[in-house]
């Protein structure tokens, strides 16, 4: 089946998925945007508190026809006020990050479909979320294109405190 004909599904991330995340984070098409190598212990340290509910970021595995293909996460910007301030993210907005980890499924137009489905089914199911703002790197053209095709508008370029690269803030109203 051609991937565009399948509908993505989302399930919560479990510790048993950490090996998948580790391999995706190290994949050549993903690693440049995460800026640090992740071994399994680092994945556990980074994502374990999210899986346990100790951190306010909600992480999901993206599946296509039952096949895990990547991950997506969302959070309320109010829970990350310093980052939100630097982006000018408004109260009541959410943030979102994703990656298609399987190289054979990149460049097929799945990103925008995944974003739209996740926003509709998960993020906007929370009545208090009025908008979504994300901040991919300026050089991450594939990610920026997916956000644009999903209906996001590019609103500004920022450089976060302590970073040497620029990010493009993209925004979508509910």
Summarize the structure.
This protein has 174 residues and is of the alpha+beta class.
Q: How does this model look, in words?
A:
By secondary structure, the chain is α+β, with helices and mostly antiparallel strands. It has a single domain, classed as Gcn5-related N-acetyltransferase (GNAT) (Aminopeptidase, 3-Layer(aba) Sandwich), CATH 3.40.630. 30% of the residues lie in helices and 28% in strands. The chain is built from six helices and seven strands. Strands 1-2-3-4-5-7-6 form a seven-stranded mixed β-sheet, with helices on both faces. β2 (57-64) and β3 form a beta hairpin. The chain is globular, with a radius of gyration of 15 Å. The mean pLDDT is 93.
What is the strand and helix layout of this fold?
Layout: E1 8-12, H1 18-26, H2 31-34, H3 40-51, E2 57-64, E3 67-76, H4 81-87, E4 93-100, H5 110-121, E5 131-134, H6 141-149, E6 153-158, E7 167-173
Parallel strand pairs: 4-5
Antiparallel strand pairs: 1-2, 2-3, 3-4, 5-7, 6-7
Helix pairs in contact: 1-3, 5-6
């Amino acid at each position: 089946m051609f991937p565009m004909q399948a509908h993505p599904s989302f399930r919560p991330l479990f510790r048993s998925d950490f090996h998948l995340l580790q391999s995706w984070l190290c994949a050549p098409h993903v690693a440049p945007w995460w800026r640090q190598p992740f071994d399994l212990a680092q994945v556990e340290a980074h994502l374990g508190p999210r899986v346990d509910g100790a951190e306010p970021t909600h992480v999901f595995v993206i599946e296509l026809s039952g096949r895990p293909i990547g991950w997506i996460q969302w959070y309320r910007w109010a829970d990350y006020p310093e980052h939100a301030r630097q982006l000018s993210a408004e109260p009541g907005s959410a943030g979102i990050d994703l990656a298609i980890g399987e190289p054979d499924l990149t460049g097929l137009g799945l990103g925008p479909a995944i974003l739209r489905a996740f926003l509709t089914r998960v993020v906007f199911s929370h009545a208090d979320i009025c908008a979504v703002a994300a901040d991919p790197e300026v050089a991450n053209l594939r990610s920026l294109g997916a956000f644009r095709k999903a209906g996001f508008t590019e609103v500004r370029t920022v450089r976060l405190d302590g970073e040497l690269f620029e990010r493009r803030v993209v925004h979508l109203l509910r």
